[in-house]
Design a protein that fits this description.
With about 280 residues, the chain is α+β, with helices and mostly antiparallel strands. The protein has 6 helices and 13 strands.
């Protein structure tokens, strides 16, 4: 059977709706700092396995490698297996968006058809994503980023392999909350001015695969939220890296005061009129 976004959205909705009360409680208990919840066995196992099998090879993706991060990403989904695009946009089905907004007690959530900073990603041995705040807005700087959805599809991925989502609700000088990037798990986290998060370095000879979406809103999650570029920090043990990344953020923020939408357009979004 060939699955489309509506089929997968129905499966996702049914699973999450069954666990809605548990997910609401999980998010409520964490929302005073960095709200989050996760749901396991999101899709039938055979579907989740099929998603992982069709992930593109690293050389078919874009390598983002710097002091800030080291990972493979892709947002131009018409260059890859159509099932990946169907899955990504299943998370943008109104039933899913409204249900997640209800779980997170958010009045409004708007999916992003442009996949700005979303799409798919892979991390292999020694790859990482340093602690950071996501860019506060969408690509046109019109909507506030409010939720980050991460769906993990690597079978038998152990927590000890690294590549796990880390939340820093009390800053870098306090222990982080680690959310295992477990196979067939969806993790959802709030994004605001205090949502510092990272991905731990991968220490395994293999790739952790992830499907990601962002939801936006016409107003921020917190009344104190202000515009900011993606703002990186170094891990607690990397003091020099932290200093360099704070300086980098300061420079980019000051550039944004002059160039409201950046010096150049961020290429990481889905250009729907682009051909294969």
């Amino acid at each position: 059977m060939e699955l489309n976004r509506n089929d997968m959205a129905s499966l996702i909705y049914d699973k999450m709706n069954q666990e809605k009360d548990i997910l609401k409680k999980q998010f409520s208990q964490s929302k005073d700092k960095i709200g989050y919840f996760y749901v396991d066995n999101l899709l039938p196992n055979e579907i989740a396995h099929s998603i992982q099998k069709i992930f593109p090879k690293p050389e078919e993706m874009v390598l983002k490698k710097s002091i800030r991060e080291n990972k493979f990403v892709a947002a131009q989904m018409n260059k890859h297996n159509p099932l990946l695009e169907e899955l990504i946009f299943a998370f943008q089905d109104k039933r899913i968006v409204d249900l997640i907004a209800e779980i997170c007690q958010i009045e409004e959530a708007i999916p992003d058809e442009n996949l700005y900073a979303g799409g798919i990603s892979m991390m292999g041995h020694k790859q990482f994503l340093n602690p950071h705040l996501d860019n506060s807005h969408d690509k046109d700087r019109e909507l506030w980023r409010v939720l980050n959805l991460l769906y993990y599809v690597t079978p038998d991925w152990n927590k000890e392999n690294g590549g796990n989502l880390e939340l820093w609700p009390d800053g870098l000088h306090k222990p982080q909350v680690t959310i295992h990037s477990k196979f067939n798990r969806l993790a959802v986290m709030a994004t605001h001015n205090q949502s510092l998060h990272s991905v731990s370095p991968v220490v395994f000879e293999g790739f952790r695969c992830c499907v990601s979406n962002y939801y936006f809103s016409t107003k921020p999650l917190e009344s104190s939220d202000t515009f900011h570029v993606t703002s990186f920090r170094g891990r607690p043990e990397n003091k020099m890296t932290d200093l360099m990344l704070q300086t980098d953020t300061w420079l980019r923020m000051n550039l944004r005061k002059i160039f409201k939408k950046g010096v150049k357009e961020n290429p990481h979004y889905y250009k729907k009129d682009a051909k294969n």
